[in-house]
Amino acid sequence: MSQIPEPRRVGNADIIHHEGFDDSIVSPFVPAIRTVSNARLVFISGVTGAPVYHDHPHVPEVFDSMPTDAAGQVRNAFEHLDQALIAAGCRRHDVVNMIRFFTDVEADQDVVNAHQAEWFGGHIPTSTTVQVTRLATDRRLRFEFHVVAAAPA
């Protein structure tokens, strides 16, 4: 029977692993994160490669300047995530959960995983990845991330 590692404190949360954990496996998520009692949860609206502030109903021309490739969109998305985290008093290691919506997981997941790993710099949040038919903002968007962070009290 494998040894269950002790939780590891990162920022305002404990990283939780369970039986079967193998630190030689490369993974973009951890099984569980427990926030500390004085943390405040921050819920960040869907982050994409499109401009954060845009009209509703959507004006398609507003999105003409966004990149159409996965690498360009993921750079923009994580820049937007940085802006939201900083505005909420958080840092990258405060992210505890990501729900990732892809329009084509097979085509884009590896690009996103590589950028995400570099961006987090070793921190790994909990994560769920799903494929959807399209995203609401603009049909040229390839993915969208819903993020929850644990801000310091």
Automatic annotation (TrEMBL):
Entries under CDD domains matching the protein: YjgF_YER057c_UK114_family
Superkingdom, taxonomy of origin: Bacteria
PANTHER family, per database record: 2-IMINOBUTANOATE/2-IMINOPROPANOATE DEAMINASE RIDA, RUTC FAMILY PROTEIN YJGH
Protein name per Swiss-Prot or TrEMBL: RidA family protein
Organism from which the protein derives: Microbacterium salsuginis
Lineage: Bacteria, Bacillati, Actinomycetota, Actinomycetes, Micrococcales
